[in-house]
């Protein structure tokens, strides 16, 4: 799982508020190898739901932001292009975008849609073409459709065949997933994690420090 993680691909949820949509988006993100996602909350009730949804998956991190500007600053600092999903005129077909470059996908709220501030700060506006009577897909479904196009492009380029995580991040996450209880104890003590051998066991000369 860690070998397939895509640290330069993420999702920003702009005030998404329904718990089932939050959980579904998290599942889709994990499915395409995303390690960290972001959420913007303008309402306390939504913040609480998003915070609760963060526990829907132990395999990725949900970072909460007070406004879209702070979320954009975070992903822009990582060199990501920012894409907003919207049905507004002039939006590009989501399949016409190159997702093999660092990318942050912004999805709007069920109540209000994508905010004007989010649209203005993005690099591109994209849309999922619709040919029926309904104007748009459910936000979690639309997120999945777009993300799996990103996965397709990245798989074709071989980006799932080579490690994308930096080595120190890979080793940290490996220990935390393999030894969740021990990792909590080491964090509480502010101690460095012990090294693991090729089979995932704590190296024998460090077992004493690990309490084994």
From TrEMBL:
Q: Which Gene3D superfamilies match?
A: 3.40.1280.10
Q: Which reaction does it catalyse?
A: guanosine(18) in tRNA + S-adenosyl-L-methionine = 2'-O-methylguanosine(18) in tRNA + S-adenosyl-L-homocysteine + H(+)
What are the UniProt keywords, alphabetically? Methyltransferase, RNA-binding, S-adenosyl-L-methionine, Transferase, tRNA processing, tRNA-binding
Which Enzyme Commission number(s) are listed? 2.1.1.34
Q: What class of enzyme is it?
A: transferase
Q: Which domain of life is it from?
A: Bacteria
Mind listing the GO biological process terms from this record? tRNA guanine ribose methylation
Q: Which Pfam families match?
A: SpoU_methylas_C, SpoU_methylase
Outline the extent of the tRNA/rRNA methyltransferase SpoU type domain. 9-148
- Residues covered by the RNA methyltransferase SpoU/TrmH type C-terminal domain: 152-204
Enumerate the GO terms in the molecular function aspect: tRNA (guanine(18)-2'-O)-methyltransferase activity; tRNA binding
**Sites where the protein binds S-adenosyl-L-methionine:** 128, 137
**Function field:** Catalyzes the 2'-O methylation of guanosine at position 18 in tRNA.
Give the UniProt family note: Belongs to the class IV-like SAM-binding methyltransferase superfamily. RNA methyltransferase TrmH family.
Protein name (Swiss-Prot/TrEMBL): tRNA (guanosine(18)-2'-O)-methyltransferase
Q: Which organism is it from?
A: Pelodictyon phaeoclathratiforme (strain DSM 5477 / BU-1)
Gene name tied to this protein = trmH
């Amino acid at each position: 799982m860690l070998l397939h993680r895509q640290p330069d691909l993420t999702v920003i949820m702009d005030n998404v508020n329904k718990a089932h949509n939050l959980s579904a988006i998290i599942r889709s993100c994990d499915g395409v190898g995303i390690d960290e996602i972001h959420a913007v909350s303008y309402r306390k009730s939504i913040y609480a739901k998003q915070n609760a949804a963060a526990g829907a998956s132990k395999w990725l991190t949900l970072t909460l932001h007070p406004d879209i500007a702070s979320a954009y600053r975070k992903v822009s600092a990582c060199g990501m292009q920012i894409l907003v999903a919207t049905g507004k005129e002039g939006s590009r077909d989501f399949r016409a975008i190159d997702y093999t470059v660092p990318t942050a996908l912004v999805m709007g709220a069920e109540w209000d849609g994508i905010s004007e501030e989010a649209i203005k700060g993005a690099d591109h506006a994209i849309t999922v073409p619709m040919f029926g009577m309904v104007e748009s897909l459910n936000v979690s479904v639309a997120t999945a459709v777009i993300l799996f196009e990103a996965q397709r492009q990245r798989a074709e380029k071989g980006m799932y065949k080579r490690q994308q995580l930096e080595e120190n991040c890979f080793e940290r996450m490996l220990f935390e997933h393999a030894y969740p209880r021990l990792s909590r104890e080491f964090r509480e003590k502010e101690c460095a994690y012990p090294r693991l051998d090729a089979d995932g066991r704590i190296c024998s000369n460090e077992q004493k420090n690990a309490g084994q």
